[in-house]
Amino acid sequence: MEIHKALYTTRMMRRLRPDPIPLEVQARILDAAVRAPNGANTQRWHFVAVDDRDLIAEFAELFRRARALEYEKFSTGTGPMVAPAPGRDPEDHAETMRRIKESGDYLADHFEEIPLLLFVFAIDDLGGANIYPAIWSVLLAARAEGVGGVMTLVLRNFEDRVNELLGVPVEEGWNMSAMLTLGYPRGKWGVAANRHPVHEVSSRNGWNTPFGVEVPQPLWPPRDDAMGTLAAVG
After folding, report:
1. Which residues pair with 47 in a beta bridge?
2. Where is average pLDDT lowest: 155-164, 192-201, 222-231?
3. Which pLDDT tens digit goes with each residue over 58-81?
4. What is the three-class DSSP state of 49?
5. pLDDT of 107-138, one tens digit each?
6. Which residue range or ranges hold the Nitroreductase domain (predicted)?
7. Shortest CA distance to 180 belongs to which of 222, 126, 142, 223?
8. Angle 141-227-87 (CA atoms, 0-180°, nearest 5)?
9. For residue 176, which of 146, 194, 155, 149 has the smallest C-alpha distance?
């Protein structure tokens, strides 16, 4: 798959089919992930693939409980992403959160159908600097295979139980960074929508100084007039 197509169309997919992901596909995805950059090439990561139906059922119950805790926080104004980003419209933010919850409800209700969970663990992760490139590589490589997914942190609410179920050697310093749900999506791929354009979220040589060009529309797929528009504004 062409790299820009992968970058522009890889998005969170929560509506997944139950069809199993072949082992060779899983191997290609993780083989790409372990090529990700990481500090001093220490590779302090470990991936646990879960396709056992009984285990997935256990994690489904934990996921629903953890998600309920997060939305309880949200309803009282104490959870993450409660407030819109500075300068953003509160109504737009509320609508975005409503859509995300609706999509997440589907994932929670159909969690037992997910064909593959991927738990990602790290040691001395420096705030995610060493593991998130690998996680993004998982999602990009999965996209190239026609596999969709979503990364979630909610099971950190029950991290001890996750460690117990998976036999994680926590005494060695391993911590769960994230869990990914992976499967063939029911929906269609497309350019990620509802993104604020580059010139609204970027500056040059200092905060809130103009970036230099405006990018009113996605630059992929390429259009004949795209670079001309940039040149005229820059």
Report:
1. 120
2. 222-231
3. 999 999 999 999 888 777 777 676
4. strand
5. 999 999 999 999 999 998 888 888 999 999 99
6. 10-184
7. 142
8. 75
9. 155
